[in-house]
Amino acid sequence: MSIKKVTLASLILLSLTACSSGGSGGNSNNATKPNAKPQTTQQQTDKAAAEKAAKEKAETERLAAEKAAKEKAEAERLAAEKAVKEKAEAERLAAEKAAKEKAEAERLAAEKAAKEKAEAERLAAEKAAKEKAEAERLAAEKEAKEKTEIERLKALAIKAGYSDSEAESFAKDNLNGEPNNYLSSLGWEKYNKVHKAALKAGLSEEQAQQLASEYSAVDADITNADKDISSLVTEKVAKEKAEAERLAGAAEKAAKEKAEAERLAAEKAAKEKAEAERLAAEKAAKEKAEAERLAAEKVRFDQLVEMAKSEGLPDSKAQIFAKNNIESTSDIAKANLDVMVIDNAKGITSANWQNGLTEYNKSFSPINSSSTSCSNGGCTTYTENTVNTSGSLLYNQKYSVVVGNYSSKTGTINGGFVSENSFNPRAKGLKTKVDAIPTEGKATYLGHAFDAYHTGSEGQGKLSYNVDFGKRIGSGKVDSLRHEPNVVLAEGKISKGGISGKASSSFDSDGSYRIEFFGPNAEEIGGKMTLGKDNYGLAGTRGEIQK
């Protein structure tokens, strides 16, 4: 309750008290002093009311502060209690999840073990059945083989001259014997029988051994030996008769052959000597010519290497140039060197690139992600929907290139539009020597300006740059850039092989540019222009110098 309200209540109370006192005034003993006591009572009442109001105000403020402190303490207690409960609940859920995962893992392990056991038992039973069937098959096969082997051994014994009963006994005795042993035994028996019969019939030891060896073979049938021995005896008699007749004329023939051989040998020796002398002379002449050729080629190679180095090529490339042009004429070698020097300065192989602008190594990388992180009872969501693009540009001219890598990110992050671009072109090539830049006349360079984001023919600006070689100044313009339609390249002075100046457009007034001269006689320009945060490549070719 405010002091104002307390005071008003006190006044009303005093007024009622005064009225009551006045109504009974006829009976009062103090009627003769109407102003003394009532005034003192009024002051006391006002003072008491004021003190009461102050106490009530202080009490009200104390209670309000006490209530606020209690509410704050209660809120902090509830927040702490909530955090403890949430932590306990998270730990309970984690423990419950771990227990479930453990139980599931144990169940799967038991199930796997049971399956593996059943599979092992099945495979063992299957293996036992197969082994039994295989054993039975092998036993039957063995019996059939033994029968066949007995018949084979019996046939071999009969061919060796055994009787049927002897052959039967031999087959059974050697059924499981070592083949080399019993075959060797049969062979020797047949050999001895045939050898003895052949010598007895009059054949020579050599013939007897040869025939006996033939019949000692495993499949040879000794029953045919007598017929072969008779045939050889008849053949021997005929050969001996023919040999006697041959020897009668052999001496004369031998003498003639010896004389002819000596003549041919002498003739051959003379021819071989003459041929050797001719070949030696021919080889010496070839070696001399080859040595002279290699010496001349070495001189030519060294000259080409020095020629290439004098044009600025490193030793490795100078060696390659010399090797590739060792057989070229001087004019062709010079033309090839000019191309190689230009390519070395440009850092590319010009034959692999078309003239003008080429885009390569281009790649796209879309990002579509959303994540939420929470802390202290609050959560934040991060959303990105962007496309990252990167690549390289190369503007090729005869004597120079303008190259640069670019990258960009466009899209939205947390609902806000994002556009980040980066492009830093640079010019390289056969720079015009400072003293080779023309010193008189005027010329216009025509070409293009380009950035990384409008690479098609419609996105390239048209560069026109005028140079007054006599005054050593240059200026120009770029038209038709999509987002910078009219760019002015302010006048700059030729310095250090190029021109630097300010660039401005209707959107950007504080840009800059730098072009450099390329080619033996400043046939080309190449460089960079900056407007705001954007960089552009500049490239142009000179027209005729007007004097």
From TrEMBL:
Signal peptide location: 1-20
Keywords tagged on the record: Coiled coil, Signal
SUPFAM superfamilies, alphabetized: OMPA-like
Biased composition (Basic and acidic residues): 48-118
Any coiled-coil regions, as ranges: 237-299
Ranges of residues in domain Factor H binding protein-like C-terminal: 435-528
Compositional bias (Polar residues): 31-46
Residue numbers spanned by region Disordered: 19-118
The protein's name: Colicin import membrane protein
